[in-house]
Amino acid sequence: MAPTPTKSRKDLQGERLFTASQWQLMWWRFTQHKLAVISMVVLIVAYLVALFCEFVAPHDSNRYDPRWVWAAPMKLHFVDKAGRFQFPPFVYGLKSSRDMNTLAMVVVPDESRTYPVRLFARGDRYEMWGLFEWDRHLVGIESGDNQMLFLLGADELGRDNLSRIIYGARISLSIGLVGVAFSLFFGIILGGISGYYGGVVDVVIQRLIEFLRSLPTIPLWLTLAAALPPTWSSIRIYFGITIILSFIGWTGLARVVRGRFLALREEDFILAARLANAPRLRIILRHMVPSFASHLIASLTLSIPGMIMSETALSFLGLGLQPPIVSWGVLLQGAQNLRSVVLAPWLMLPGLFVVVVVLAFNFMGDGLRDAADPYAI
Q: How far apart are alpha carbons 65 and 143 in whole angstroms?
């Protein structure tokens, strides 16, 4: 009997490519974009931190201590005064001292007191997702004199800046997802109707899109945000801002969907669905939308940073979310005046987190856009 020829590794890879599904090809193409993969890991970590912000933050976001107003970021020390290596690392305590140049009271390290920084340390009690109470935090210090851990400094009320940034991530990151979900709904429905039906319906929807796109964006945001009742609760304001951002942001997606529908409605599989008397809504949602789902995913990924930047800009200007809600835009309100920036430059750190997240979304969206057409060279 003749021996069975063995397939080479190249032949096996070729068969794997020919038998792979569209989504497998997209994933393989996406993993070739190293910067996009790194950005995806950064975003996964960011959303996990936002999801478990009560546990990750060293303190409650609203805990304050007037003794530590404008406290500078604490330094982690691994070597004590005697030159011995210490693990876990420690931080020095804080004390008030008078600056002999300005005669103002300032917060300085107190090297006579040390506090080990431990994992899963006990701290402020919190409710995890409103289900159960706990007092463990990812990192923290356990002290009997109410000493706080300021890894990124303190604000004008003596609140931990790092904890407030972590809590603010939940609002700032989720508003992008919720806003894009609304934009996806409006964009697919109105853009799909416009491209599928055509005629008068298409003309009316396109004129509405052109009207909304012709309005200056920032004044429109300010006008709609200022129209929200000041008596609304924090949750209502959150959803109100989200709907406003979605109301403005669906027009670009709707035009993309309309163009794709105009190209698809004469395809054979759409004509076959019509001849089978399939309902029009089923044809749109079941046959037409999935045929360019990869393009939708890439477009939505690139739209989320715009939503995050919009919320940050509105809140920074004082017309978006308001305290006691904590978001990155609300935190940046503390860096509006020059005095605050000079005394506490660490108050601008929420802006750095906004930049990192927006860049990560853009890089990941660039990778998804390339992966959306896995057959391209």
A: 15
Cα separation, 116 vs 118, whole angstroms: 6
Query: Who has greater pLDDT, 120 or 281?
Result: 120
- Six-digit token pair at 372? 């959306």
- Could you tell me the domains of the chain? 164-371 (1.10.3720.10)
Question: Nearest-CA neighbor of 87 among 102, 76, 103?
Answer: 76
Tokens 């590794």 belong to residue: 9
Q: Cis bond leading into 324, ω under 30°?
A: yes
Using left for φ > 0, alpha for ψ between -120 and 50, and beta otherwise, residue 153 falls in: left
- Among 65-69, 134-138, 215-219, the minimum mean pLDDT is found in 215-219
d(CA 248, CA 251): 7
Question: For the segment 50-84, what is each residue's pLDDT rounded down to a tens digit?
Answer: 999 999 999 999 998 888 888 889 999 898 887 88
CA distance 163 to 147: 15
Residue with tokens 């933050």: 57
Amino acid at 71: A
Q: How far apart are CA 323 and CA 19, in angstroms?
A: 55
How far apart are the C-alpha atoms of 32 and 35, rounded to whole Å?
Answer: 9
What span, in angstroms and rounded, lies between the C-alpha atoms of 290 and 371?
16
8-state DSSP, 323: T
Q: How far, in Å, CA of 148 to CA of 108, rounded? A: 13
State the pTM of this model. Answer: 0.84
* Pair of tokens at residue 219: 């004044």
The pLDDT of residue 40 is 93
Diameter over CA atoms, the chain: 99
35, two tokens = 């910067």
d(CA 202, CA 209) in angstroms, rounded, equals 11
Distances (CA, A) of 19 to 24, 30, 325: 10, 18, 51
Rounded CA separation 237/173 (Å) = 16
Supply the pLDDT for residue 10: 54
